[in-house]
Design brief:
- The complex is a heterodimer.
- Chain A is mainly alpha-helical.
- Chain A is built from 2 helices and no strands.
- Chain A has one domain.
- Chain B is of the alpha+beta class.
- In chain B, a hairpin with a 2-residue loop joins strand 9 and strand 10.
- The chains are: A mainly alpha, B alpha+beta.
């Protein structure tokens, strides 16, 4: 139950960051189609930052899995 | 009733215990979201690598667009300039006044259409409009005027020679 709650919280964090990335991509695309790309690098770096945080959160997901495996081994 | 063996076929098809179902599906979905996050970051990188074309420095060789009198007053002719990937529009405003613009809206590159009665070029995507004589923005979201193509009339033919002003 606690594992499911933890995964849900992590999932919500990832979704929020994903929406921010989508917004950043939209900004870049609008600027590009308008013949300008001054914001391309800042939005790319911000998007990379979001990806980094997402990968960091993914470590916790894998960590929960590892804990689960240990618990199952203990029960056996 | 005989004991069921542990290696029934259905266990291979449904390996997840019922209690873990929510956990497993959310975990996999979260991993998929992180993968999508990577794709979005790569997508943003595309716009760093590919710069929008600077029309102001592009001056192709003069291209014949039409002959004088080929289009009537208020009519248009579509052509490509400076390359085959660049749609352009030639308009005859009065008896001897021709203008040509890049046919992509400066907002999000939608094709613009000419309205002779209103003397303007309309962008149907987001309701923007440009002045037909100058290319300046009349209203709507476009941030800059339409790039205007310089024309030259010679020997009864109309040539596109380059860009009149900085795009």
């Amino acid at each position: 139950m606690q594992r499911t709650q933890a995964i849900s919280v992590l999932m919500i964090f990832v979704i929020v960051l994903l929406l921010i990335q989508l917004w950043l991509l939209t900004i870049s695309m609008e600027q590009f189609l308008g013949g300008d790309n001054r914001l391309a690098l800042p939005t790319f770096l911000a998007s990379l930052g979001c990806l980094g945080v997402n990968l960091w959160l993914l470590r916790y997901v894998n960590g929960i899995d590892a804990m689960r495996g240990k618990e199952e081994n203990t029960h056996e | 009733m005989p004991d069921m063996p542990q290696s029934e076929k259905w266990r291979d098809d449904f390996p997840t215990p019922w209690n873990d179902d929510n956990y497993i599906t959310r975990r996999e979905f979260t991993r998929f979201l992180v993968l999508t996050s990577g794709a979005l970051a790569v997508g943003s990188g595309y716009f760093v690598v590919n710069h929008p074309r600077n029309l102001a420095v592009e001056h192709d060789t003069p291209a014949k667009v039409a002959t004088v009198g080929e289009i009537a007053i208020g009519e248009v002719k579509l052509f490509r300039f400076p390359t085959e990937n660049d749609p352009a529009i030639l308009m005859r405003l009065t008896d001897n006044e021709y203008v040509a613009y890049r046919q992509r809206c400066s907002h999000l590159s939608c094709p613009v259409t000419y309205n002779h009665e209103q003397s303007r070029l309309n962008c149907p995507c987001h309701n923007g409009a440009f002045d037909a004589a100058t290319g300046n923005v009349l209203f709507g979201p476009p941030p800059s005027p339409l790039p205007k193509i310089a024309l030259k009339i010679e020997d009864g033919a109309i040539y596109a020679t380059g860009w009149e002003e900085k795009a």
